[in-house]
């Protein structure tokens, strides 16, 4: 198959190798003709592992000396090699970056073991409740009201009471819904709430539902509903102060009506329309800046590790061990 020797086509391969022309393999530029001796030509290949020969693409084969130069072990990525070499720099950077990120969110108390953490800016919890302003006539449930009107009749000692139908008017209830928030925020209601439920931390604000109030504009509500906003440093505290304020305000209005001696049909009634909802956390420390600082410090220590690798390069030892190659390469019949 290879060359023109008849030994490749018939007879014992071992007995006819000596009669064929010697085979030579190029072992590098300028080293052609280095004979390997008798080789097996039955399949046109020769094992060169013991010679340290490694075939190259698009070029001559390299011998034992050249293989040492070519096969010097190098990492695939020099940056990865530098980071792995100075791994302790990355570990130190991760520790310092973690401490810095935690210190931006929490206050660290080293007086105890383990250290105690407390938030620098604790979040606030807000909830809302609504109260319906109504009366004993329940005007929002009917389309007309029947009222007796006293008119004296000539020659009669008792006045007649003809029935008069009127359309329900919730205007007075709407005006009350715009006035009562000011009473609800008063000191008298706060003192009554403390007498009923004890000290409740937090703040309360009230306004007519869907009304708009700021320094330059005021739009009153058009519905007989009061909305109460409660804020506290805990979720349970926000719910407690909202419920306590509603109950204290209802008691305050009832006391005022009793003091005025109003009849039941003349009184404004306050009915809970919506209990305090699940509080929503607002404010508190943001995690965006601590996370940014964490990655920035990690990147800085990674760059420092790369600089250390440039300043203190790894020492290369002579005669590095080379893994033997076991490749089958084609050999050519040379004169």
Shape: elongated
- CATH domain class of the largest domain: Alpha Beta
State the helicity in percent bands: 25-40%
Distance between the termini: 16 Å
Q: Which class do the helix and strand fractions yield?
A: alpha+beta
Q: Low-confidence parts, pLDDT < 50 over ≥5 residues? A: 1-20, 22-75
Topology order in helix (H) and strand (E) letters: HEHHHEEEEEHHEEEEHEEHE
* Main sheet summary: 5 strands, antiparallel
Report on this model:
The protein is of the alpha+beta class. The protein has three domains: 1-73, no CATH class; 82-122 and 284-314; 124-150 and 168-280, Alpha-Beta Plaits (2-Layer Sandwich), CATH 3.30.70. Helices cover 34% and strands 19% of the residues. It has helices spanning 13-16, 64-70, 78-85, 87-105, 171-184, 187-197, 235-260, 288-311, and strands spanning 45-47, 106-109, 116-119, 124-135, 145-148, 163-166, 203-208, 212-213, 218-219, 225-232, 268-274, 280-282, 328-330. Strands 4, 7, 10, 11 and 12 form a five-stranded antiparallel beta sheet that branches. It has a two-stranded antiparallel ribbon with strand order 1-13. Helix 4 (87-105) runs antiparallel to helix 8 and helix 6 crosses helix 7 (235-260). It is elongated.
Key features?
alpha+beta, Alpha-Beta Plaits, 5-stranded antiparallel beta sheet, two-stranded antiparallel ribbon, 13 strands, elongated
């Amino acid at each position: 198959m290879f060359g023109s020797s008849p030994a490749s086509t018939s007879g014992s391969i071992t007995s006819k190798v000596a009669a064929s022309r010697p085979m030579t393999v190029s072992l590098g530029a300028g080293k052609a003709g280095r004979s390997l001796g008798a080789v097996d030509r039955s399949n046109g290949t020769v094992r060169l592992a013991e010679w340290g020969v490694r075939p190259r693409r698009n070029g001559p084969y390299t011998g034992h000396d050249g293989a040492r130069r070519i096969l010097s072990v190098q990492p695939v990525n020099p940056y990865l090699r530098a980071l792995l070499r100075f791994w302790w720099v990355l570990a130190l950077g991760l520790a310092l970056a973690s401490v810095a990120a935690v210190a931006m969110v929490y206050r660290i108390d080293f007086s105890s073991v383990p250290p105690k953490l407390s938030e620098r800016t604790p979040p606030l919890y807000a909830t809302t409740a609504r109260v319906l302003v109504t009366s004993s006539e329940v005007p929002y449930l009917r389309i007309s009201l029947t009222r007796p009107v006293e008119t004296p009749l000539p020659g009669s000692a008792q006045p007649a009471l003809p029935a008069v139908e009127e359309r329900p008017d919730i205007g007075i209830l709407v005006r009350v819904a715009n006035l009562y928030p000011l009473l609800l925020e008063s000191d008298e209601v706060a003192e009554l709430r403390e007498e009923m439920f004890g000290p409740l931390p937090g703040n309360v604000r009230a306004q007519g539902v869907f009304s708009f109030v700021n320094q330059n504009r005021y739009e009153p509500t058009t519905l007989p509903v009061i909305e109460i906003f409660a804020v506290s440093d805990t979720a349970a505290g926000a719910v407690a102060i909202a419920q306590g304020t509603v109950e204290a305000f209802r008691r305050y209005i009832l006391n005022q009506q009793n003091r005025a001696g109003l009849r039941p049909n003349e009184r404004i009634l306050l009915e809970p329309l919506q209990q305090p909802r699940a509080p929503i956390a607002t404010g508190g420390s943001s995690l965006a800046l601590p996370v940014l600082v964490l990655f920035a410090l990690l990147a800085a220590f990674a760059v420092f590790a790369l600089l250390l690798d440039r300043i203190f390069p790894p020492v290369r030892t002579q005669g590095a061990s080379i893994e033997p190659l076991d490749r089958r390469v084609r050999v050519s019949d040379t004169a």
